Amino acid sequence: xxxxxxxxxxxxxxxxxNPGARHKEIREALCRHNGIDPKVKRxxxxxxxxxxxxxxxxxxxxTNINGQFYINSQGVLRTI
Length: 80
Hints:
Elements: H1 6-17, E1 21-22, H2 23-33, E2 62-65, E3 68-71, H3 73-77
Antiparallel strand pairs: 1-3, 2-3
Helix pairs in contact: 1-2
């Protein structure tokens, strides 16, 4: 079981360590981190990068510029 908030912390840490990473790369790293084969669970964790659900928008933590993600100051706070 994944502890609440640990996926966000992982994503923020990953983007901070890999500025300019694409969402597929981040999502696959998150899958591997949680013991999930990203090839089997295609599309898993896409909700973190989707704007389909207004109540769960994480744009305040990272910025998407031409498909590449960069950490924001609020996102840096989530890595601590």
